[in-house]
Amino acid sequence: MAIELRTRKDPYRAAVHGVHSLDGIVFTVPDLDDAVRFYEAFGLETKRVGDRLDLHTLGHPHAWASVHAAPGPKKLQYLRFGCFAEDFDAIAARIETLGVERCAPHPLGSGEGLWVKHPDGFPVQVVVAAKSTPDLRSEKQVEPPVPLGTGASLARSRIPKVRPRRLSHVLLHCPDVSRAIHFYEDALGLRLTDRSADLVVFMHGVHGSDHHLIAMAKSDGPGLHHLSWDVASIDEVGRGMEQMYAAGFTRGWGVGRHVLGSNYFYYARDPWGSYSEYSFDIDYVPGDFEWRSGDHPPEDSFYAWGPAVPEDFITNFEIRNG
């Protein structure tokens, strides 16, 4: 069935002007062939368009991220946020009033919309676009009843490839988390969902989104830590882990369950030291609901259960290798 993306805001948010989606993430890696191998093994569709690689999920019309080749370590280049046409002028006016620094379009981007400089130094683009963030909590895959005397699990040889359904969120390395929160709240209209001091912060969209569409972790500099991809069951999280093992990508973390966001996870480490996450059953914030944000102690902000965290899990390799 074709997926239709919404282009107009709901009436109950008529007076609220904020971006509705993280419309795209653009980053560079030293070799696009390595990117093709990793993301296709992960279960995404990769499409080469000229000298860039677009990342799609099966059957979904949106390109969630674009990857370009450039020497050196993997590097976040810019973020693109989408808003409804009714909100664009109000967002632009608010950005002007706040005195947010404008910048020229990124060489890898387009001239549409408006371009501003994130407090961490990288460009951010705001464009009018259809809403790619979901309007409802993701459906869980319900397995049919198993007849008595029949095993419930598929044999390994019959397990289909895990295919993520959409991008859920990104987590960014951030040197000044409080400053970044003000940028996303005041300029773009995102809202704080939960945090643990300045160690980690989660923000959602006012027009309905997962528990977070942007997360930030304290670091010495900016960078992209992980892309999180929605799957249909905890079984798919585990099967995704095995899928990556079989493809030779054996480093990662999980399977486990987060506390803030509540999603089950497995993080597959990519060739550049960052991650892609299989995520199932993340909390959802409807557009007509006012989430009460909390500041949680570190022991209650990371994960409820799972294996030991790799020592370099939160290392910012864009800084270390730069």
From TrEMBL:
InterPro entries: Glyas_Bleomycin-R_OHBP_Dase, Glyas_Fos-R_dOase_dom, GlyoxalaseI/FosfomycinResist, VOC_core. Residues 21-129, 166-281 form the VOC domain. It comes from the Bacteria. PROSITE patterns: VOC. Gene3D superfamilies: 2,3-Dihydroxybiphenyl 1,2-Dioxygenase, domain 1 (3.10.180.10). This is VOC family protein. It comes from Variovorax ginsengisoli. The lineage of its organism: Bacteria, Pseudomonadati, Pseudomonadota, Betaproteobacteria, Burkholderiales.
